[in-house]
Amino acid sequence: MFIIIKKILMEENKSVSAKGRVLVTGITGFIGMHVGKLLLEKGYTVRGTVRDKKNEKKMAPLKSLPHFESLELAEADLLKPESWDEAVKGCDYVMHVASPFPIRAPRDEQELIRPAVQGTTSVLKACFKHHVKHVVVTSSIASVMSGGASYKPEYTEADWADTNTIPAYNKSKTFAERAAWNYYHSLDPKERFKLTTILPGLVFGPAFVTTDFSSGDLIRQLMTGELPALPRMHCGMVDVRDVAAAHVAALDCPTSDGQRYMCCADDHLWMTDISDLLVKEFGKYGYRISTRRLGYCCFKIIGLCERQVATIMPFWERRRYSRLKRRPKSWESTS
Length: 335
Fold this sequence. Notes:
Strand content: 5-15%
Oligomer: single chain
Mean pLDDT: 80
CATH architecture of the domain at 11-211 and 237-266: 3-Layer(aba) Sandwich
Order of helices and strands: HEHEHEHEHEEHEEHEEHEEHHHE
Low-confidence stretches: 1-17, 326-335
Shape: globular
CATH topology of the domain at 11-211 and 237-266: Rossmann fold
Number of strands: 13
């Protein structure tokens, strides 16, 4: 009798903790690894996609995660639509985090735009085919901010970036998110999955990954003085742990279907503010932190030769504020 009762209790506990299987695309990335870790801690079964399981440089940090032994892995590539069928099959939910994020500006913007759009569309088609319940897509505040003549100081989730005024990375995030919503709205409302997009600012915080990632590379360039001068840029920022929490909160929130949510501090910081904070915290350890200021004309000239510099010029001296239109009460404990 005791054995039977024990089995019943074990099955009840199993059914309570079995929240479902979540696919995290790009789980070896800076954000993806934090999302996967939080899902595992909350009792979800997690499957993560990687391009190559044999890439030890990418896999080693993943293996250091708590509960790694319970993590499922699948190989998939944003430019190989057929690879997503098996990756998505059997999953209840999908966190589509994977997206190209360059360390350097590409010569051809399609190097970013094509995999971002094609990958997002392929993942969502596989989600519909395999009856996934809810998809959370990682977008960016880059998809709401415009530059040049289309600039405005305050923006919300109701805004969309003017793609004629923004650089390649911003275009890739904007076009990919639009592709997600276009596909979602093309489906029968009675049959489609739920869809939520998370729009983080510049993401900082502790990193599990040991390979380069863009926001980490920015801090490295500032810390080592590799960045020769500070542009007059106003940056919206967020902690990577809050970004992960927002993804999971969106999954758990019953009213998040069909919604975009910015994940960013209301007020932003100038690059000079970031530099000053680094000097205060790390200058005493001998780091040669970038502090030099140069004017617009100097950066404009440099931008004629350096594509990376040219991409920031539409945002020069543009002070910005983000204003969330909505924040579900159920998010308050995690955001």
